[in-house]
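TICKET: design request
STATUS: open
ATTACHED STRUCTURE:
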């Protein structure tokens, strides 16, 4: 089993929860906590997983155990409705699937993958996405694209990098590479050469905002940066001052700063690892006016133990406000840090209706 798959099993099983955290998960019927805790009812001698749909008992009648084995050892029996004993099996199946995807020289389809771990395809598809934050196919694409990006910096030829990354033929790589890498493979190999990035610095009530875009979408949105910072980030690209094509897009970005939630469909041209993209997608799903802690974001992204890595992914966010990393608070409920300053973060949250 791969290191990543083993880490997934450990992440879901080793983190202890306080009784208050466990009860909150049960009250919310939060599937993200399935496999991390079970609740045992002292009056019925039955234990359940947090997402169990059954009516909740009174708090004083519930005790918590880290897993089903511990609950059984204490004399409780499994709930026949939510079947908490199957959670561990699900977790191991996802880890096995991750290992199979990583080891496969060719693509492995959903039916074959589900059969290998003993589940029906549609059920396993939902289970895998709930556990990891992405579908099996998206995980495989992200893994190959990440390998390709790394190989393109090492191999002497693009074709060599394509085969090293695990693609069966160059045509398979070219079908998806542009969308994932945001530029042609040759341009990636040359550090982005041949890509044109248009930029402008717009005035907002929170200070100057760099807005930059390729012909596919926004690639950089950042406070207190200019074209020189942009050129440092994209040293091989052609950096060109704005123009009419960028003006309308920039106006919509500024509007999103001043009145959040109006332009959630702005096109972006950013890519990351499969993990980063899962975190960024989880961020985009946080409604304006709501916030999460880093731990909650890690759960939403399907990696509950990767709290530090989630923080790093937030810091790598290339498009401020559009991917709303300002909606993340510290574990104690405080406002937490922000790459562009706490005052800006507080102002953004206030505009969205979140208590600061």
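STATUS: resolved
RESOLUTION: sequence designed for all positions
ATTACHED SEQUENCE:
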């Amino acid at each position: 089993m791969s290191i990543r798959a083993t880490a997934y099993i450990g992440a879901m099983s080793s983190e202890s929860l306080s009784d208050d955290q466990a009860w909150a998960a049960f009250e919310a019927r939060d599937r993200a906590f399935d496999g991390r805790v079970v609740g045992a009812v002292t009056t019925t001698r039955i234990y359940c997983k947090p997402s169990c749909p059954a009516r909740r008992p009174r708090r004083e009648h519930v005790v918590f155990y880290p897993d089903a084995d511990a609950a059984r050892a204490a004399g409780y029996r499994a709930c026949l409705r939510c079947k908490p004993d199957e959670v561990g099996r699900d977790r191991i199946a996802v880890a096995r699937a991750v290992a199979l995807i990583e080891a496969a020289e060719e693509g492995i389809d959903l039916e074959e993958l589900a059969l290998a771990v003993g589940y029906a395809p549609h059920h396993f598809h939902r289970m895998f996405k709930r556990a990891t934050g992405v579908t099996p196919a998206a995980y495989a694409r992200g893994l190959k694209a990440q390998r390709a990006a790394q190989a393109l910096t090492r191999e002497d030829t693009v074709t060599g990098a394509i085969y090293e990354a695990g693609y069966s033929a160059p045509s398979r790589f070219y079908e998806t590479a542009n969308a994932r890498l945001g530029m042609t493979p040759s341009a990636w190999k040359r550090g982005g050469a041949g890509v044109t990035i248009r930029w402008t610095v717009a005035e907002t009530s929170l200070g100057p905002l760099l807005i930059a875009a390729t012909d596919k979408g926004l690639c950089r949105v950042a406070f207190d940066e200019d074209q020189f910072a942009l050129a440092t980030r994209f040293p091989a690209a052609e950096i060109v001052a704005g123009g009419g094509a960028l003006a309308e897009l920039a106006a919509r970005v500024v509007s999103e700063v001043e009145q959040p939630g109006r332009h959630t469909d702005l096109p972006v041209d950013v890519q990351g690892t499969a993990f980063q993209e899962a975190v960024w997608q989880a961020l985009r799903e946080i409604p304006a006016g709501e916030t999460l802690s880093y731990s909650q974001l890690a759960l939403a992204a399907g990696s509950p133990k990767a709290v530090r890595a989630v923080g790093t992914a937030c810091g790598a966010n290339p498009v401020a406000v559009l991917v709303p990393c300002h909606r993340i608070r510290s574990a104690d409920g405080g406002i937490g840090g922000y790459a562009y300053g706490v005052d800006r973060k507080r102002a953004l949250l206030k505009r969205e209706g979140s208590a600061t």
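CLOSING REMARK: Residues 1-14 have pLDDT under 50 and may be disordered. The chain has four domains: 3-86, 139-189, 196-258, 274-351.
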